[in-house]
Amino acid sequence: MRSLDEAAIWNEGVPGVDVPGYDRTGIRTGIVHIGVGGFHRAHLAMYVDSLLIAGEAREWGICGVGVLPGDARMRDVLRAQEGLYTLVRKEPDGSLAPRVVGSLVDYLFAPDDPEAVIERIAHADTRIVSLTITEGGYAIDQKTGEFDPEFPGVRDETSAFGLVVEALARRRDRGTGPLTIMSCDNMQGNGDAARRVFTGVAQLRDPELGAWVADRVSFPNSMVDRITPATADSDREALAERFGLRDGWPVVCEPFTQWVLEDDFAAGRPEFERVDVQVVDDVVPYEFMKLRLLNATHQALGYLGYLAGHRYVHEVAQDPVFARFLRGYMDDEATPTLRPVPGIDLDGYKDTLIERFANPGVADTLMRINYGSSDRISIFLLPVVREQLAAGGPVQRAAAVVAGWCRYAEGTDEQGAPIEQQDRLAEELTALALRERDEPLAFLRHPAVFGDLADDERFATAFRGALESLYARGAAATVADLA
C-alpha cells in the first residue's frame, strides 16, 4: 500500500495511476485559492497541474486557503500528503482513471493564522486570488442584485472578503500593485458579483480603497462545468483496493470538463488556452447555456426525482419519463432564453447533458444537488421563468419544479420518511411549505426568493396545478403528465 507521499509517489510510481513527473521544488505561488473543495481540485487545480506537466506555469502554483472551521480537516489531510491528492475520473462503464495532482503547493488555514493568509495574498508573487465559496456565499441582495452590507459576516475581518480586502490595502500601500480576483462559482456574472462585493467591502473600510479596487483590480467572469460528487468512504476504499493507494481525501469526477474564461487579468495569467480552456472576450452566452440548461435541469430532476423515490442523479436520468420531461424543459422553456453560443451545437450539448446525468459511475446524490435550494433556484431557474413570462412563453415544467421544491421543503417524502433540509432559509421555507396546503401561494410569497412571482396569474396557476397533482398523485404521475 502506497501513501500519498511525494518522494514515494514520484520515485516509484503506482501502477495504473498517472503521476506527474515535474519537480515541485521551486514552484512559486501565483494563485491563492479560497475554498478548497472537490470542485476546485477537479477543475482549476487540475488545469494548472496540466500546465506544470507540460513544463509551463512554474510561477503559478496554488496556495489553498480555508476560512471555515470545517476546513480544518482539509488542512490536516493536505499537510499530511504534502498537498498531493488523487483525482479519480469515473467512467460510465464503472472503470476508474486516477491521477495524482501536484499543483497545490501550500495550504493555509485562516483560523490558525489570518495574518499568514493576508501576507500571502499581499505578496508580489501572488497575482490571482480565485474563489469557490458557493453561490450563496456572495453578499448580494437577491432582489436588487447589489452588494448587501448587512449580509451575515460580510464585515468580519477574518472572512474571505475581509482577508482579501486587507491584503489589497497592503498591496496598494506598498506599491505592490493590483491582482485579479477570479470567481469559479456556479453563477451568472460571477466576476461581476465578485466585483460588487469586494468593492463594496473595501468602500465600507475606506472609500479611497474602494475606488482603488474598482479601478485597478480585475474580476473576470467565467463559466465552469464538471460534475464533482462528494467523496464517499467507498471512493477511498476503491482507490486502496484497486490501486494500492492510500489517500485521505481523493476527489471523484465525471470525464467531462469545461471552462470558459473572460480574458481580463490585471497582473497576467497562466496560458490556460494550452490546456483547452476557452479564453474569450464574452462569457455571457456560455454562462446562460450552462446555468439554464445544466444547473437548472439539475434542479428540475433533484426535488421531483427525490419525491419519486430516486436517490441518485443517474437513476432519474435513466428513467425514460423523467428524461423526456428534462429534455422538454430544456427545449421548450430554457433554450428560447439563450443567446447564440459561438462554436456550440446546442442539440448536441443537450444530448450530452442527459448522457452525463445518466452516468452511473459518478453516483452523484440528489441531496448534493438539492443543497442550498433557495440560492440555486433563484440563480438557475427563476431567470428563465421571468423571461418566459415576459415573452409569453411556456412555464409549465419550471412551475412544476418549483412545486416539487415546495413539496420537498415540507420535510417528508411520499412515504413519510424525513427529508433533511440543507438551506440557509430552511426554517422559514419549511414553515411556508407546510402552510401551502391551506393557504395557497404562501410558499411563493417569500419575497427574498420569489419577488412578486405569486402575483403572476399564469405562473401561480401552473404552480398550484402541479402542486395539487403532487399532493394527490405523487411526483412520478405529475412528471408523466408533463413529459
UniProtKB/TrEMBL annotation:
Tell me which EC number(s) this protein carries: 1.1.1.17
- Listed Pfam families: Mannitol_dh, Mannitol_dh_C
Q: Which reaction does it catalyse?
A: D-mannitol 1-phosphate + NAD(+) = beta-D-fructose 6-phosphate + NADH + H(+)
Q: Which UniProt keywords apply?
A: NAD, Oxidoreductase
| Segments forming domain Mannitol dehydrogenase C-terminal | 282-470
Looking at the record, the residues that make up the Mannitol dehydrogenase N-terminal domain are: 30-273
The GO annotation for biological process reads: mannitol metabolic process
Which is an annotated GO molecular function term of this record? mannitol-1-phosphate 5-dehydrogenase activity
SUPFAM superfamilies linked to this entry: 6-phosphogluconate dehydrogenase C-terminal domain-like, NAD(P)-binding Rossmann-fold domains
Per the similarity annotation, which family is this? Belongs to the mannitol dehydrogenase family.
Q: What is this protein called?
A: Mannitol-1-phosphate 5-dehydrogenase
- Name the source organism: Pseudonocardia autotrophica (Amycolata autotrophica)
**Lineage from the top down?**
Bacteria, Bacillati, Actinomycetota, Actinomycetes, Pseudonocardiales
Please name the gene that encodes this protein: mtlK
